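Working notes for the structural subgroup meeting. M.R. asked for a predicted model of this chain before we commit to crystallization trials. I am recording the input and output together here so anyone reviewing the notebook later can reproduce the run.

Input as submitted:
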Amino acid sequence: MSQAVTNQRARSLALSRVSPALNLAAPSVSFQSAGRLLVMGPEHRVRLACASLDSVREKVGLITEAMPETLLPEMEAAAELVPELDLYRLPLLNIEGYLGRFQVQVQVKEQVAPLARLAFDSDYFDTVLDLGATPALPMILKPAGYFAPESEAAYQTALAEIPALKGGFEKPRYFQVQTDLCAHSGSELTGCTRCLDLCPADAIRSRDGRIEVDNHLCHGAGGCATACPTGAIRYGYPQPQLLLERLQGLIEQYRAAGGVDPCLLIHDAAQGREQVAAVLGSLAGHWLPLEVEEAGSAGLEVWLSALALGVGEVALLTPASVPASIRATLEEQSGLANALVEALGLSTPVRLIDSLEQWVPSEAPKRTSLAPMAQLDAKGDKRSQVLAALEHLQQQAQVVPAPLALPAGAPFGGVLLDQSGCTLCGACAGICPTAALKSYGDQPRLSFTEADCVQCGLCVQACPEQVLQLQPRYLFDASRSRAPQVLKEEQPFCCIRCDKPFATASAIERVLEKLAGHSMFDEAGLRRLKMCADCRVVDMMQADPGGDLFDYARGGVAAKTAQEAEQ
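Returned structure, recorded in token form:
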């Protein structure tokens, strides 16, 4: 039996023996719809649509734009219709929400009014059919229950689906959010915004400095989880652990059945499943399909873990339905993965494919001498999984490349510190969300662990002296990247009264330099700056300021002397 036939048989056995990565009790999001419909757009299109939706009993029209000046056949058809329809000609101010809870604000005599209250004595519309030239909701992935058809086929599909959207509905809760891992903000400063920048459903918001996902708006496209450098947002359908366990099980079973040199084809459930099933029989046996809910949900931790398990190539099926922002993220992340493994002397292993029809898969698998990783840490966090995979690949390649420069925005890197300007105030360490930067209390020292840095930039913004700079790169030497490196250290400055360390010499020197000659600080006042907080209070009380608070701040001597002279 040839190896190609053995690979085909090994793949079939592996697929039959390894369970799909499905949550047995996945959390869900609920919708409740009473079927109240709002149709928006020019009057002729509103009337025609409402006539076609005769089975929807509660519906109103909102005229949001004028009809074309040129008489169209559909306008003539609409003129012949006299349906029982409530039409409103009111300026649209705002619309937001989702199936069962669309809030529509209009202007009534210079006042803001909820249209659903005017029409149905209700707070919400349940569904919206937007027939305007430009959709009122601009996001790429529209909310459930909102239809803005751009073609006749999409219009007919909307007319067919709207009557059925009445009752209770559920969809998966796609994401898990761990705010304690998030690098978005701190101390009212903004750091990482990767998830906010790319969400095609506008389902992610920053509220009071915390990232929140509106699960009713979320479509589960997955790009936010792929882009998140810390794993604060992780795809939950399926759970990351289940997906990585299936990945490892698939490869192990394939090898146990005699298969060699596996390659991985990742595809989504909606379109990719049928496409892959159609070509699987003719696809070379070393190609193992791995299904994910959405193409955008598989990122660095999946691709690099597959390579660490001995996969020679990863192909990710990204159909045309993938939103542009998600595709751009996948291209950026796959480019990063390829740059990292190419620096280790390996050939480009990760690529995106638009369609299986145009894809020319390798008939002969890429042979690799790298020993596969014995066991993935499927329960670990995303960051540790990525680093573990890269460290395994580096150990197998038996090289330690020079640090690889990366483009700005990459989730790996160091920081550059101008030691002459740093006062070791600890502001950068206090705001660092991953504790990559650390200060040590009474010990004037600042250390940095590069493996933990996600390049969020919060430290740069928080530094009062502006002496920090990000350095996007990947440091392959794990002994250096994982160990804290001292950026600056100096002897503590001790109180001149009690000898207790309370600051750094550079900090005290900087303050004295800035306040020298200031009208509020004479010699005694400047001397107090060299004392700890407790001794400063004691010294001021002993000086007895009298009634002059300004003299008190300067040192308290002049006021007391003047008072004694009068007596």
